[in-house]
Amino acid sequence: MSDSIVIIPTYNEIENIESIIRVVLSQHKLFDVLIIDDNSPDHTADKVIALQSEFPNRLFLEKREKKAGLGTAYVHGFKWALNKKYDFIFEMDADFSHNPIDLERLYEACHHGGADVAVGSRYVTGVNVVNWPLNRVLMSYFASYYVKKITGMKIHDATAGFICYKRIFLESINLDTIKFIGYAFQIEMKYRAYAAKFQIVEVPIIFTDRTKGQSKMSNAIIKEAVFGVISLRIRKLFNRL
Question: What SS3 class is residue 116?
Answer without folding.
Answer: coil
